[in-house]
Amino acid sequence: MSGPARTLACAILITAIGNGLYLAGAVLFLTRSVGLSGTEVGTGLTIAGVTGLGAGPAMGHLADRFGAREVYLVTLSAEALATGSLALVHSFAAFVVVAAVVGSAEQGSRAVRGALIARVGGPERARLRGYLRSVTNIGVALGAAGAGLAIRSDTRTAYLALILVDAASFLLTALIIARIPRQSPPPRSDRDRDRDRDHSVRPSRSDLPFLAVTAVYGVLSLQYAVLTVALPLWIVTHTAAAAWLVSPLLLTNTALVVCLQVPAGRRVDSIADAIAITRRAAVLLALGCLLFCVSGAVSPVFAALALTLAVTVHTLGEIGQAAGEFEVSFALAPAHAQGRYQGIFGMGTGVFIAAAPALLSVICIDRGPAGWILLGGILLTAGVCSGPITRWAQRRAAHLIDA
């Protein structure tokens, strides 16, 4: 791994630790310290997610024009200021405003980070992204564990410390990123400039195949909410398993991702490899849904065993889907527009991820076992469709290069 790649990995680890602190303690801070209701917090976070969707393509375009490293430093600074501002929130209206800024800065950073990974990683960019995903899981786990101390004390001072440390992590990350040599924007031909002039941020007709790929992988990204949203609710409402089982099951997921994401990425060197691993991942995700379905049996022991197997199979599918997604999102994007295309891809998957909690609650929890079968069918269909749609986008991308 090159020096800049190691520096980027170190920066991502710091950010992930801060995110772990935030994810574990932010909702409790807002409800127990600020005094917002659960509904108000959920509404504010949804508004923030929707508001931030357009920031990805916009900041990605700026990264293509002025350099990913430079724009990433700006978005990290914005994340630090916005996150720190949560400490000043005392009303729902103020929370909505601050959360919207946090969401926009976060989505913008995600797109710019994708462009920076593409430049730093070069031909190994998809593998680097897989490695960074493992690093991210380690960091989030460490942050969540550290947040337990603040949650245990359950005081405003402790919750404020979580928020401020998370804000400081973005500034520390920016200092580390500043050590990466400046990444000059990739050269653009006159044809590239003419093509991008009228749709620097908005998708054009030539982007339709890429948008179709984004939609397919967006559907597959529903799987990310299965373990964080559907699993806890399913255990407490439809199984005889103990509620405390949620924690070791999530730790199992984290451990498998940390250990297997990088090896999975090594097997993906082309779009053909990405299509193959995505199809296999969709089969595993569908099988995992069936295992979740049968875990609703009355025996606590059988339920625990079925849930453990379901989480294991689901995680293997998650790892494969992520490996395929990384390769496709980079390989189908023009070299001169990685930032904009990463932003578009992130915006598309972001829509499905934002809708996933409500959607999975209706499908899997309200409908019970039949809902898991339906979800499995949806994920399997998306996996099957990924092949022809991705090849269509690949042909279109080759046509634009030759045009």
Structure write-up:
The radius of gyration is 21 Å and the shape is globular. The chain starts with a helix and ends with a helix. The chain has two domains: 183 residues, Up-down Bundle (Growth Hormone, Chain: A); 198 residues, Growth Hormone, Chain: A (Up-down Bundle). 83% of the residues lie in helices and 0% in strands. The longest helix is centred in the C-terminal third of the chain and has 34 residues. The chain has 15 helices and no strands. Helix 6 packs across helix 13. With 403 residues, it is mostly helical.
Features:
403 residues, mainly alpha, Growth Hormone, Chain: A, 15 helices, globular
CATH class placement of the largest domain: Mainly Alpha
CATH domain topology of the largest domain = Growth Hormone, Chain: A
Oligomer description: single chain
Helix content: over 70%
What is the end-to-end distance? 35 Å
Could you say how many structural domains there are in total? 2
Round the mean pLDDT to the nearest integer and report it: 86
Overall geometric form: globular
Low-confidence stretches: none
The value of Rg in angstroms is 21 Å
What's the CATH H-level superfamily name of the largest domain? MFS general substrate transporter like domains
Elements, N to C (H/E): HHHHHHHHHHHHHHH
Provide a count of the helices. 15
What is the level-2 CATH architecture name of the largest domain? Up-down Bundle
Helix/strand-derived category reads: mainly alpha
Number of strands: 0
